Backbone:
């Protein structure tokens, strides 16, 4: 019965929408409260990228943490079950069957700990390339008249293509 109630609340509760709304509102409120000099230093593309890309990624990460906690709760429930059944059935507890239960999470945690630095570096590089591409697109759009008058369309198309290739290459790694 308890699991049924938990499943009902899990399917009916949406944490992503309110979180996204709060972060969007807070980001825009902070930007609008900047003084004129500070607002000039922050490019509008970064605000747009923050609103359209970074906030959903942040909320997605939050959702992933919540799901991880749910999985840990299920694992904890299974461990309680495995420890309580021998007591309830009055049987001898077998430590050999529990060795994998304890060994696998320790090995996984060690692997993730060792891999964290490399993964973080790759994600940072991918984000920088993505922001570079967005900045290049915005600058091209903003300076269209100059590009057209000086007949530099092919140069800017090449820049966009290179930025796009860099962005795609970092996503593959």
Residues:
């Amino acid at each position: 019965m308890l699991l049924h109630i938990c499943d009902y609340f899990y399917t009916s509760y949406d944490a992503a929408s309110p979180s996204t709304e709060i972060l969007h509102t807070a980001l825009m409120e902070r930007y609008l409260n900047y003084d004129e000099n500070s607002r000039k230093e922050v490019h509008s593309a970064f605000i747009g990228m923050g609103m359209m890309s970074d906030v959903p990624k942040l909320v997605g990460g939050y959702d992933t943490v919540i799901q991880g906690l749910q999985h840990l709760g299920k694992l904890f429930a299974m461990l309680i079950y495995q420890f309580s059944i021998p007591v309830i059935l009055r049987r001898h507890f077998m430590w050999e069957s529990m060795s994998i239960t304890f060994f696998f999470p320790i090995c996984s945690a060690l692997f993730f700990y060792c891999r964290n630095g490399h993964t973080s570096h790759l994600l940072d590089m991918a984000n920088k390339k993505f922001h570079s591409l967005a900045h290049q697109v915005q600058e091209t759009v903003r300076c269209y008249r100059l590009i057209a008058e000086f007949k530099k369309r092919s140069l800017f198309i090449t820049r966009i293509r290179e930025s796009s290739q860099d962005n795609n290459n970092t996503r593959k790694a």
Observations:
- Helices lie at 2-12, 16-32, 36-41, 44-89, 95-142, 144-149, 153-172.
- The CA atoms of residues 99 and 105 lie 11 Å apart.
- The mean pLDDT is 84.
